[in-house]
Write a structure and sequence with these properties.
Elements: H1 8-12, E1 15-19, E2 22-27, H2 41-52, E3 60-68, E4 75-86, E5 91-99, E6 102-112, E7 137-138, H3 139-148, E8 161-165, E9 181-189, H4 197-203, E10 224-231, E11 240-246, E12 249-250, E13 253-261, E14 267-276
């Protein structure tokens, strides 16, 4: 018999239907990038997407785009959902996430039933070249240990995951950046819960910005302006493998491209975001 108790992610993205197209959720502080700061953009995306799919016959987001207008704060938020078009294979919906009478995030998404998806499959891009997971660093535990020794507190969102990162990817935090914009490794939920397609929306934005590994001391806070995540399939059980890159910064604006692979070696998600390096 399946366990009816919601896991941490399900609980922290739960929404209540208030009426047609109207929902109430709560931003949990445990998904912030910095203790006491604004929540992670991928988490906000997933919270809104749970409301967006509620009245649809299609449970899986296949593409969701969010424009972040202002960061929400921990506490209640309202989500207004509008059906743009419903069809046999896809449903498209728009949404607004509001708090304190102010629109914080505007979203547009298309949903499908990926469990019933049927069509040609071909993959010409190579898989990720990561070291074996057992050779990687337990980044979550290391961050907690460093915090106990007086280092910077572990980011709340880091504790939501079991992160296993190649040693070289950790260099930015220890004064040994890669010299290129890249982050990635293996991960799963810290509580061992299964990963679903809503969870992939968070995975697509849960790492430190790849620009931190460039080694440029001028690069600091990197707020997201727009984030698009495309989901290709429901992930198999087990650790996900990830890679996120930034290759160009122009007058402070940068892209971040991501790819997420499941334990069966299938590409399950792609992402791109536009962000701004604050001075």
């Amino acid at each position: 018999m399946a366990d009816p108790t919601p896991n941490r992610f399900e609980r922290d993205t739960a929404v209540e239907r208030l009426g047609t197209g109207r929902y109430r959720g709560t931003v949990d502080p445990g998904w912030a990038v910095i203790e006491g700061a604004a929540p992670n953009g991928g988490y906000v995306l997933a919270l809104a997407a749970r409301a967006m799919r509620d009245a649809l016959p299609h449970p899986d987001p296949v593409t969701v785009t969010a424009h972040f207008l202002a960061p929400p704060e921990p506490g209640p938020v309202d989500i207004e959902v509008e059906l743009v078009r419903g069809g046999r294979r896809h449903s498209t919906v728009a949404a607004k996430l509001l708090q304190g009478g102010r629109e914080r995030t505007r979203l547009l998404g298309t949903f499908a039933d990926l469990g019933a998806a049927d069509g040609p499959t071909r993959l010409d891009r190579p898989g990720l070249e990561l070291p074996p997971r057992d050779d990687c660093v337990d980044a979550t535990s290391r961050s907690l240990e460093r915090a106990k020794d007086g280092a910077y507190p572990a980011p709340p969102i880091l504790l939501r995951f079991d992160h296993r990162m190649p040693t070289e990817m950790m260099g930015w935090a220890e004064g040994r950046p890669l010299g290129r914009g890249e982050m990635g490794g293996y991960l799963r939920w810290a509580d061992g819960a299964p990963m679903d397609t809503l969870g992939l929306l968070v995975v697509a934005d849960c790492y430190p910005p790849p620009v931190f590994n460039m080694g440029d001391s001028r690069l600091g806070w990197v707020p997201t302006i727009e984030l698009t995540v495309q989901i290709r399939k429901r992930p198999a059980d087990g650790y996900l493998a990830t890679r996120f890159t930034t290759e160009a910064i122009t007058n402070g604006y940068l892209e971040e491209d991501g790819e997420v692979w499941d334990a069966d070696g299938d590409l399950v998600a792609l992402s791109r975001q536009l962000a701004l390096v604050a001075r």
